[in-house]
Amino acid sequence: MNGRQHAQRGYTLMELSLVLAISALVTATALVLLAEPYRRARARDLVARIQALDAQIRSRARREGQAWQLEIDLRARTLAGVRRADGERLPQQVALGRTLGLVEVETSARRSTYGRVQIDYATNGQSPTFALRLREPPDLDRWQFASGLSGVWTELTDHREVEELFDAIRPEARAVAR
Asked: DSSP secondary structure string, 142-153?
C-alpha cells in the first residue's frame, strides 16, 4: 500500500467542513420554522393552566362553601388561588415565564396594568366577569374573557370586543339602555 491509496480512503478537511456547514444550515432552518408553533403551543398551555386554576377555585368554593380569590400579581407574573378565610393557597400556581406576559386585567369595574388584582369567588363558585390580556412579541396579543357566572372562557383578539361585552354587563350601561 502506498501513501496515495491510504489518503483516498478518508475525507478531506474541506469535505468535513462542508458537511458541518450544511448540518448547521438545516438545524438553523428547522429552529426558525419550529419557533412559531412552539411559541403558540406555550401560549395555549398557559391559557389551559389559567383556566384549570379558575375551575379548581370554583370547585373548591362550591365544595367547601367558602369564598376564594384568584390573586393575580402583574409584576411577579403569577396567578394563585387563595382561600379568603385563612389565606390557604392552592398548590398549583401559574407562573407566566419571561416572554409571555399578562399585561392587563379588566373587570366591569376597573382596569389594571400593574400591581396585584384579586378576583373574588363566592361560596357558590361564581365570580365577577373578568378578562386577561396576554401578550408576547411580536404578534401574539389576545384577551381571555372569563364569564363569572358560568366559568366559560372565550378568546378575543380585539379590545373592542372586550369593551362591548363589559358594556353589556355594566349596571350603568344597562340603565342608560332602558
From this structure: EEEEE-TTT--E
What is d(CA 128, CA 70) in angstroms, rounded to the nearest whole number? 11
Q: Is domain 3-177 in CATH 2.60.40.2890, yes or no? A: no
80, 118 Cβ separation under 8 angstroms: no
- Residue 139 cell numbers, joined: 404578534
The pTM (predicted TM-score) of the whole model is: 0.77
Burial pattern 15-31, b for ≥16 Cβ within 10 A else e, equals eeeeeeeeeeeeeeeee
Domain definitions of the chain by residue range: 3-177
**pLDDT tens-place string over residues 16-51:** 899 999 998 888 888 877 777 777 788 888 889 999
